[in-house]
C-alpha cells in the first residue's frame, strides 16, 4: 500500500459512450482494489443514472486486473461497527447493480478477486480475457465471503462454490468457463470489441421491455415459482402502458414482412 494514498477518495473513471456507461476501476497500482469510497460512488453513479443508460459496463484499468477485491488498507482499520457499515455498503451496491433496470456487463480483464468477483456475479453478462483468474481469498484473510457471493453456487454448482470459498484458491478462466460462470472468453485485445458486440445484441430493445425483464429476473431470483409466475402476469400487462411497446410491435411486424418478401 502506498502510504500517501488517500483511500477516502474514489478511484473510478465513468465514461458515457453513446448511452453506455463504462465504469472503470482505476487503481491499477493496487490491482484496482476497491475501497468504501469506491463502493459508495459507484452506487451513486448507477442510482443517479435512473433508467437513462442503454447499459453499464464494469471493467478494470490496465490489462492485469479487473479488481483485486477490497483494499486491505480499508479492511485493516475496521472494528465491529465499521465492518458492519462497510459490508452493508457493499450489499447496497451489489443490490443496486443487480436490480438496475438496464443490462449490465462485467468485462473482466485479468484478476477478478473477492469483491471484484461479487460485482461480476451480479452483472447480467460476464466476458473474460484468456488471462483472467478468479478467487475468493477472504477466508485466508480471516473474514467470510458474504453478500451476493451467495449467487456463486447458481453459476458453478454448490460443491464447486464451497470448494472455491473454503480453499481461497485461484482458478483459471478455463475452469470457470467450464463450470458455466462466463458468457464468453476472448483474447485481451478483443475484450472491448467482444463487449461492444454483446452490447449490440442486448441493448437494441425498448427500455420498457428491458426494465420489465430485469424486474422478472429479480422476481425469479427471490420468489417462489408460483409467486414469480403470478408477478409475471402483472409485469407483462404493465408494458402495454408504454407507447413504445406498441410502436416496437409495429416495427417488428414490418421487419418480418420485409424479410418475408425479400
Question: Can you describe this structure?
Answer:
The protein has 262 residues and is of the alpha/beta class. The chain folds into two domains: 12-202, 2-enoyl-CoA Hydratase, Chain A, domain 1 (Alpha-Beta Complex), CATH 3.90.226.10; 207-261. The protein is built from twelve helices and ten strands. The strands form two sheets. Strands 1-2-3-5-7-10 form a six-stranded mixed β-sheet, with helices on both faces. Helix 3 packs parallel to helix 4 (115-122). It starts with 11 loop residues before the first strand and ends with a helix. The mean pLDDT is 93.
Keyword list:
6-stranded mixed β-sheet; 2 domains; alpha/beta; 12 helices; 2-enoyl-CoA Hydratase, Chain A, domain 1; globular; 262 residues; single chain; 10 strands
Please describe the topology of this protein.
Blueprint: E1 12-17, E2 20-25, H1 36-49, E3 55-60, E4 65-67, H2 72-75, H3 80-98, E5 104-108, E6 111-113, H4 115-122, E7 125-129, E8 133-135, H5 138-141, H6 152-156, H7 158-167, E9 170-172, H8 173-178, E10 184-186, H9 191-202, H10 207-222, H11 225-238, H12 243-261
Parallel strand pairs: 2-3, 3-5, 4-6, 5-7, 6-8, 7-10
Antiparallel strand pairs: 1-2, 8-9
Residue ranges: pLDDT <50 for 5 or more in a row? Answer: none
* Secondary-structure content class: alpha/beta
Whole-number count of domains: 2
Helix content: 40-55%
Entry summary:
The chain is of the alpha/beta class. The protein contains twelve helices and ten strands.
